[in-house]
Each structure stands twice: as C-alpha cells, then as structure tokens.
Amino acid sequence: KITDDIKNALKEKDPIMALLVKLLIIDERFIEADALKGLIHIVIGQQLSNLVMAELTKRFDQHFTPITKNHLNQFDASDFKMIGLSTAKSETIKRIIESPMDYEALREASNDTIYEALINIKGIGPWTIDMFIMFIKGDPDYFTIYDGGIKSAINSYYDGFDIEDFKHHFSPYGTYACFYFWESLAHKKLIMNQIKSMEEGT
Q1: Is the dihedral angle over the CA atoms 129, 132, 133, 137 positive or is it negative?
Q2: Whole-angstrom Cα distance, residue 145 to residue 177?
Q3: What is the full per-residue pLDDT of the chain (202 aa) written as tens digits?
C-alpha cells in the first residue's frame, strides 16, 4: 500500500512530483507472487504496450499453466511462439526455464547480485532486470533509467533533464516515483497544462 507518509515524502522532492501525487490516485503497488512467472511476464512485455502485454501474458498463462520449470520444460521455444511471441522472446523464455537458477531465492538477493545473475541470460538486459527488482523483489527504492515511459515523462515535465540525475532523486521511494510517472502518461495533457499554470503562477 502507498501510505500517506510515502506520498508526503514524494511531494517534498520537487514541485512536479508534488503535482503528480496530488492529481493521480495510486493506492497500491503490485508485487508478483511467483518469481518465475513474473520474470516470464516481464520478458513478454519487453517493448510492448500494457494492452498487448496483458493479452500475451494471458495467452501464455492459459496455454502453459502451471508456470513451473518442470511443466514448461516439456515445451520448445516454437511452442511459445505459437501464441504470438517473437522468436527472440520465445528463446529467452526457454533459456529462463532451462537455467538452474532459483528465481525465488534470487528475489531475496542484493540488487547487484540480481543484475549479475540475470544479465548472463541472453535476451535479458538492464530494463528487464530493473523490472525484476521493482516488481518481483519489491524494492521500494529503485528508479529505472532504462524505461521509455519514464524517460518520456521526465523529458516532458522537467527542463534540461538528465535521466541519471533522477536515479537517487526520489530516494527512499524511487520505485513509487516511477509508478507516478507511468500513471501520468495517461493524463499527460492535463499534467502539462497544470505545469504551465504553475510556471505562470496562475
């Protein structure tokens, strides 16, 4: 749950974030209960809209339940491709399944350890690892600098931004700041109008 203390702490970081917290309703954050299933869903969602990702993850879950290594090992990458996944994503999912890595144990590891473990799986890059840390490990203070939506929001709302400057700007609630930026994209026109009014003092 996103408590009032978290919201108030974010409001104090800068006027733009204060505006987002005021205008947008976000009461809870999602943490994936199953690490293997969550990682596969993240891979499916690489460079896709939320709508397309939701449809493809739904198909995957329906066709391949239960989402366990033992069950999924009987399928080839070509089977995953048949539900609409790209060849690259299908092969990445197969590599995830074949890896001896314990993904449930990994969610308890340090962020550096998670990065070092997952980056060795072909098809998994910094963005996917960031999503694992945020949505599977559940780190409350992890601000991703690799997400296109986050970059778009910051580029629109802040003048002369450098995404690296924001990596620790919202600490200790970097993950929650990302949630507000993502949610703001659906209300970008309203947000931009509010920012303009703030700048004009109206």
Answers
A1: negative
A2: 12
A3: 899 999 999 999 999 999 999 999 998 878 899 999 999 999 999 999 989 999 999 999 999 999 999 999 999 999 999 999 999 999 999 999 999 999 999 999 999 999 999 999 999 999 999 999 999 999 999 999 999 999 999 999 998 888 888 999 999 999 999 999 999 999 999 999 999 998 887 6
167 vs 170: CA distance, rounded Å: 8
pTM of the model: 0.94
SS3 call for 143: coil
| CA angle, residues 93, 95, 97, in degrees to nearest 5 | 70
CA distance 56 to 48: 10
